[in-house]
Amino acid sequence: MISVSKLPQTGTTIFTVMSALANEVNAINLSQGFPDYECPAELIDLVTAAMKNGYNQYAPMAGLPALRERIAAKTEKLHGAVYNPDTEITITAGGTQAIFTAICATIHPNDEVIVFEPAYDAYAPAIKLMGGTVKSLALEPPDYRIPWEMVKRLISSRTRMIILNSPHNPTGTILRKDDIDQLSIIVKNRDILILSDEVYEHLIYDGEVHESMARYPELQQRSFIVASFGKLFHSTGWKLGYCLAPAALMQEFRKIHQFLVFSVNTPMQVAIAEYLKNEETYLSLSSFFQQKRDTFRQGLAQTRFELLPCSGSYFQSVWYNNISDEKDTDFSIRLTRDFGVATIPVSAFYSKAIDYHVIRFCFAKKQETLDMAVEKLLAL
Q: Which residues of the chain have pLDDT under 50?
């Protein structure tokens, strides 16, 4: 007997499709968001040492206390927010698991969740699996700013959660203080949770401030904040992240977490706890990636693409109206097959596949990789 699909409209993610195509035709892969360079050698040595020293069994369900304490200290220093490492921080198997767990823990059938599109494709399926309703609001290029008056119209008695992502994937935009002010007005005196996807928190440029929900007590008290060590330390394959939330919310989060994965990579937790003692390991990331962003943008400026703003993340979006009137999916496939550079069509991040003729490149790559990609793109 064939069972009825719980996600009948969901297929293979665009990231898998484009990376597979890149491998098939041996194209430069600027599609999926992962580095093509090694994570820090010191961190690998620390993991190796942890394994040799016997840290190879289950970690505590919530994560190693030493790592949670480091995260608490880091968050307080950067944002002035106090989190109890025992009751308000949980180590997760990557940012996506934290997102799924937060949604699973709090969304009930017929609850409404506001999602801003283009959106990371893990949000909507998790909401639907819990019986919730996705209330999507499409943002437009070039700046993809949130129209807060429209958000107010989406609010109803069934609104349970608003999902935010800053710095934003795929657009590279960030929340600013006026966004925070508008958000605070909307949720005040309402039973609305916030799921804040902050996995690119340290990849923010031009002296801008990362407006974390942790910086604002009235938002912090209703927020799940998701972060990623994979994004932080160039080690996406380790699948290690964490979630911050007030104790009452974290209690519900852990009820799901314990049966979803229970606990995650012990030796890597040991290593990262030690590695985080040096603040420069994360404070230097902004300048590291801004140099890549600036160089890549300079190269792209010589092509026929039109650059969109990039204030954060390691993604650069461009318009290709000057090159083709093809659908962005068709253009992305042709770019991969015929010119040897794989990208992601941004319409894939919209539930209705809205096509603004925008594609996304990942610049978390070696300099020679980016140079070769630009050289190929100049042929367009």
A: none
Alpha carbon distance 41, 25 (integer Å): 31
DSSP letters along 173-228, please? ----HHHHHHHHHHHTTS--EEEEE-TTTT-B-TT-----GGG-HHHHTTEEEEEE
Residue pair 304/165 in contact (Cβ under 8 Å)? The answer is: no
What domains are there in the chain, each with its CATH number? 14-32+284-377 (3.90.1150.10), 57-278 (3.40.640.10)
Spell out the alpha helix ranges (H) of 38-196.
Answer: 41-52, 65-79, 95-106, 123-129, 148-154, 177-187
Closest alpha carbon to 114 in 144, 153, 169, 140: 153
Residue 90, Cβ neighbours under 10 Å: how many?
Answer: 26
Residue 19 tokens, joined: 């990376």
Burial of 120 (0-12, 13-18, 19+ CB in 10 A): buried
Q: For residue 19, give the nearest of 315, 334, 336 by alpha carbon.
A: 336
Other CB atoms within 10 Å distance of the CB of residue 141: 18
Which residues touch 370 (CB under 8 Å, ≥6 apart)? Answer: 292, 295, 296, 299, 363
- Phi/psi for 317 (5° steps) reads -100, 150
User: CA nearest 132: which of 172, 105, 169?
Assistant: 105
pLDDT of residue 268: 97
| pTM exceeds 0.90, yes or no | yes
Pairing type for strands 241-244 and 223-228 reads antiparallel
